[in-house]
Amino acid sequence: MNGTNDGPLSDEEFDTLLALLRRVCEYELDQFLLWKFPTPFGETFVTIAREPALGSSGDGYNRVPQP
Q1: Is 0.85 topped by the overall pTM?
Q2: What is residue 1's predicted lDDT score, i.e. its pLDDT?
Q3: Which of 14, 18, 48, 64 could make an S-S bridge to 9, C-beta 3.0–4.6 Å?
Q4: The pLDDT of residue 3 is above 70
Q5: End-to-end distance of the chain based on CA atoms, in angstroms?
Q6: Contact indicator for 37, 43 with CB cutoff of 8 Å
Q7: How many other CB atoms are there within 10 angstroms of residue 8's CB atom?
């Protein structure tokens, strides 16, 4: 990690984020998680679910490769 919470993620930080999200999906997720983060650009909404977003076939999602 770069030691700050400012600026974009480094490649290493992004890889760590994906690894941690994979663990959340495998071990913590029951049906869905709904998160809301305040940002300088307004609130950002994050949904983690076992089904694609309502009205989506899932084709538009980027598959995260296995580690």
Answers
A1: no
A2: 52
A3: 14
A4: no
A5: 19
A6: yes
A7: 7
**pLDDT digit string (tens) for 20-57?**
999 999 999 999 999 999 999 999 999 999 999 999 99
**What amino acid occupies position 51?**
E
- Output the CA angle 22-36-9, nearest 5 degrees: 55
Closest-CA residue to 32 (of 17, 56, 50)? 50
What pLDDT shows up at residue 66? 85
Residue 27 tokens, joined: 């071990």
Which amino acid does the sequence have at 40?
P
